Amino acid sequence: MSNLDREAVPAVCGGRGFVVAEPVRELLSPRRVQLGESTEVRRLLPNLGRRMVGAWCFVDHYGPDDIADEPGMQVPPHPHMGLQTVSWLHRGEVLHRDSTGSLQTIHPRQLGLMTSGRAISHSEESPKPHARFLHGAQLWVALPDSHRSTEPHFEYHAELPVVTAPGLEATLILGEVDGATSPGSTYTPIVGADLTLARGADVRLPLEADFEYAVLSMSGEAHVDGVPVLPGSMLYLGCGRTELPLRAESDAGLMLLGGEPFEEELIMWWNFIGRSQEDIERARADWATGTRFGEVKGYDGAPLRAPELPSVPLKPRGRVR
Ligand code: MN
User: Fold this and answer.
1) Whole-angstrom distance, CA of residue 120 vs CA of residue 319
2) Could you tell me the distance, in angstroms and rounded to a whole number, from the CA of residue 59 to the centre of ligand 1?
3) What is the rounded end-to-end Cα distance, in angstroms, of the chain?
4) What distance in angstroms lies between residue 123's CA and the mean position of ligand 1's atoms?
5) How far is the CA of 114 from the centre of ligand 1 (A)?
6) Would 207 be classed as within a structural domain?
7) For residue 11, how far is its CA from the centre of ligand 1 (angstroms)?
């Protein structure tokens, strides 16, 4: 928590039609996590006090890193279940391979969206050769119970709708802002948008009152609802807002994440989202024995092994820890 957290965080924001809680301004600090041998990421979700924003349940921000003489990102084949992954870049590129046969280089401000459904595996690597700088975010979206066993698939959307206002360019990653809708598949009411603010921008972004929101800073100096948010930090905004004031002292890059509060309880362990201990145990065993999650072809290296399960039972948890 932060010294900006002057208002209590609501225990329940409610779904659509529910009484909407007051807006909050809760600055979430990142936790540094080593990803493979060469990449350090800043993890914003899950965070100490908060696990989800809408169905967004995992947010890593990385770079900008100078990888001119480095291998860059090297994440060997690993499985996913019960979620979607969103790969979003500001600089550089990432080569995605998955067990449905996808082979796709992801470029800045183009959407790599993988829906794991019941089971998928993938790898992510900096291609050879690659650009000097790598800067982006890796995000997960929890699938609701009704869609968590859906068919695994990968989508790549090079063209995304852009909404503009003086000093603001908003690219739709998922969902809708101001009448523009991303072509990416969604399974809950959700929004993700990339916000480019020009120096001196002073704008108000329209929001949905019954969504909860957070803003991740990627670069530059921006004030979100009056709060300075530095690159690698995220401001949780709560629910009950119809607009969001944004100001930029310099050119700045932000990501808006939001959605209807996700009321189902989840078990999130390693790369899996389930509803019970048994779901997770079965997924772990299936990955270990090479069943269900398929095979990633062409990655130069061994797949990741799942860690040991904790000796205490995993507990289903809600949006707030
Ligand atoms: Mn992954």
Assistant:
1) 25
2) 12
3) 13
4) 7
5) 9
6) yes
7) 30
Please list the pLDDT of the chain residue by residue as tens digits (321 residues): 233 333 444 445 555 555 447 899 999 999 999 887 778 899 999 998 889 999 999 999 999 999 999 999 999 999 999 999 999 999 999 999 999 999 999 999 999 999 999 999 999 999 999 999 999 999 999 999 999 999 999 999 999 999 999 999 999 999 999 999 999 999 999 999 999 999 999 999 999 999 999 999 999 999 999 999 999 999 999 999 999 999 999 999 999 999 999 999 999 999 999 999 999 999 999 999 999 999 999 999 999 999 999 999 898 888 776
Domain CATH for 177: 2.60.120.10
Rounded distance between C-alpha atoms, residue 149 and residue 147, angstroms:
5
Count of the separate structural domains present in the chain: 1
**What's the 33 CA to ligand 1 centre distance in angstroms?**
15
- The answer as to whether 250 is a domain residue is yes
Tell me the chain's radius of gyration from C-alpha atoms: 19
Asked, for residue 79, whether it belongs to a domain, the answer is yes
CA of 205 to the centre of ligand 1 (A): 31
Q: Which 3 state secondary structure label does DSSP give 71?
A: coil
Q: Could you tell me the distance, in angstroms and rounded to a whole number, from the CA of residue 116 to the centre of ligand 1?
A: 10
Domain that residue 103 falls in: 17-259
